[in-house]
Amino acid sequence: MPLLYLIFFSILLVVVVQLGVFSIVLTKLGLSPDSAILLLISTVFGSLINIRLFTMDSSAEELPENYQALRSFFNPMPVLKGKVIIALNVGGALIPICFSLYLISIYSVNPLHFIPAIFIVASISYLFSRPIKGLGIGIPIFIAPVTAALTALTIAPVYSAPLAYICGTLGVLIGADLFRLKDIKHIGVPFAAIGGAGTFDGIFFTGIIAVLLA
Which residues, 6 or more positions from 208, have their beta carbon under 8 angstroms from its beta carbon? Predict the structure, then answer.
């Protein structure tokens, strides 16, 4: 699955750039072409890197059949019996968080704007996300970006593009990942990454689509 994600998003990288979609996004966010491509490439390849945070008790009795193969190539973390390791995915969580903070800083986004916006997207993301046995947390791909775009346009139309990215990506991370941590112990995985697996594509597309719609 991680290899398929890498292949898929590598192809997507070429398609998005060729169609000029990303040029529209970077224009709305005030990024230079080089910075935009660097962000996109870092996000895609960063999705293969996980930073271990802590462990939780797990109710899983056995591992998925393909877990050992995936672990040996992509995830060197040990399997802990009766535990699930919680990590932070670089491409799906760390980079979007840092970029959101950057946007808040350069656009001087009012906390009275981005805090309620994040709360709205997080609430919707939580309601529509679901634990997927043997994988992680999944969320319908268009729910968060549409919600983020509408929220940003309503709360701060002048800064709708950066606000859409901020509330979209952080909202998904909070609503579909952090609020769902309690469900991880029941889905039969020994390892789960915040911003990884089922929610990575949601976060990735949220950032692009929300900005396009805003």
Answer: 16, 21, 22, 25, 145
